[in-house]
Amino acid sequence: MVETTYLPVMCNHCDDAPCMRYAGDAIRKRDDGIVIIDPEKARGRKDILGSCPYRAIVWNEEQQVPQTWIFDAHLLDQGWQRPRCQQSCPTEVFEAVKLDDAAMERMAATEGLKVQKPELGTKPRVWYRGLERWETCFIGGSVSADIADAVECLEGAEVTLSQGGKVLTTTVTDGFGDFRFDNLAGDGGMYRVEVAHAHGSVWRDCVLSESVYLGELRLTRLAETKEETAKARPGIAHLVEGAGGGAADSRGAPMLDSDNCRSDMTHRRTSRQESRETNVARILSAAETLCAIYGSGKTNVCDIATYLKMSPANVYRFFPSKLAIYDGLVARVLEDNFPVMQPDSGRFTSAETLREFMLGLHRRVLALMRDEEKIFELLTVADDERWPAFAAHAKRVVNVVAELVEEGVRAQEFRQQDSLRAAECLCASTAALWEPKAIQNLHLRRSLITPEDLISFSVEALRNGPFQCRR
Ligand code: SF4
């Protein structure tokens, strides 16, 4: 779990500015509220730097003057409607508004805006959204358990935060086992985090002077002894005894029907498998969405994790690397675009079926090139670098073609030949129809050869005749 918070620090153009009180006429406030340092009167006054409690004044060594951000007053005076920072920021982080004090207070109350260090009474004019992320701390962690010989992240575990024995709040872990408590004072207080789930429990104490990630919290089994079993909730006791097998009898604990046990274990294993598949699918969908917008080169694991509101560490639980995610995405795109063989294809000749299959493949890749530019780019890289997903796809194409060749041989439509070798040759000669890198080049060359010409020409080589294909 990684979180980075930035706080842009600038002159707040305070209405009751300590710098003005200190520097005399070297600093003044304009009628529009902008605080200006006079470079002539302030020349050589390095002492002014210490007067700003926000450390917003810097020293210009070359000019020997103290400087601060003057709200781009020189530009506003030329007729600009917005300061340069607002005008240039593509994500619209800055917003300059011209309001009277009452309207500004209302806006701050409505949007949850805050100023820095209000306790100083300097009346700053720069308001921040989300300042609590800078001023407060969080406690986070990731919950896992040993389940069927594998460590799995645990969704739906109840997590309680308490202090001095008093419960402050509770939450549950998300699909990746993550939890988080926000807006906590980093005042050195001691907190306890307790996690409870049918698979067990775990707790941690921490002292909070800055945000804390507790790391992976692995659950341990509850109620291992008869006494503990008696104290534990019945549902949990059954799980423990079910896993414990024969030992349960010797301890006098409730016996479970072994068939029911097996069925329960199978059921849980199946749901865990489903949960894993769901998480893998979510990650791939996020990668596909971001890749379609920004391209794979500009989308990393952190971007995907942020999009899913989870930690990068959890993404890595399902995929060992960014490349593995994109390889999975390539496999999914290729699978979704693999031509479906018609069940009634028997009424067509093998040559016709083969032709339709290759042209179907061609049309789908062509559509991706036309409609999904960045996803197509990803496919060209996967093709160029022969990623495992693309290599598997190419093998699948060859195998389908080999089956069709064999059918053609059986029907005496094609001559006797090594069907796999013939399929490899046909796929290589028609690469411009289905391999993204080649299809791109064919498109760029604006070739006069149509896809139909190319596949018909290649299929002809399979028919009865003098052609020999040797290894
Ligand atoms: S932020 Fe600092 S420099 Fe700017 S007006 Fe306030 S006290 Fe002066």
Structure description:
Strands 7, 8, 11 and 14 form a four-stranded mixed sheet that branches. The protein is elongated, with a radius of gyration of 34 Å. It is an alpha+beta fold and 471 residues long. It has helices at 18-23, 73-76, 84-88, 101-111, 132-135, 226-231, 234-244, 247-250, 258-294, 301-307, 312-318, 322-336, 350-371, 373-384, 388-410, 419-429, 431-434, 436-445, 451-460; strands at residues 27-29, 35-37, 58-60, 65-67, 113-114, 128-129, 137-147, 150-153, 158-163, 166-172, 178-184, 189-197, 200-208, 212-218. Strand 1 and strand 2 (35-37) form a beta hairpin. The longest helix is centred in the middle third of the chain and has 37 residues, at 258-294. The protein has five domains: 18-132, Alpha-Beta Plaits, CATH 3.30.70; 136-220, Immunoglobulins (Immunoglobulin-like, Sandwich); 223-256, no CATH class; 261-319, Arc Repressor Mutant, subunit A (Orthogonal Bundle); 336-460, Orthogonal Bundle (Tetracycline Repressor, domain 2). Bound molecules: iron/sulfur cluster. Iron/sulfur cluster binds at residues 11-14, 17-19, 35, 52, 54, 56-57, 68, 122.
Q: Strands, helices and their partners?
A:
Layout lengths: L17 H6 L3 E3 L5 E3 L20 E3 L4 E3 L5 H4 L7 H5 L12 H11 L1 E2 L13 E2 L2 H4 L1 E11 L2 E4 L4 E6 L2 E7 L5 E7 L4 E9 L2 E9 L3 E7 L7 H6 L2 H11 L2 H4 L7 H37 L6 H7 L4 H7 L3 H15 L13 H22 L1 H12 L3 H23 L8 H11 L1 H4 L1 H10 L5 H10 L11
Helix pairs in contact: 9-10, 9-12, 9-14, 10-11, 12-14, 12-15, 13-14, 13-15, 13-19, 15-16
The chain binds iron/sulfur cluster.
| Assembly type | single chain
| Overall pLDDT | 83
Give the C-alpha Rg. Answer: 34 Å
| Ligands present | iron/sulfur cluster
Strand fraction equals 15-25%
Q: What is the count of β-strands?
A: 14
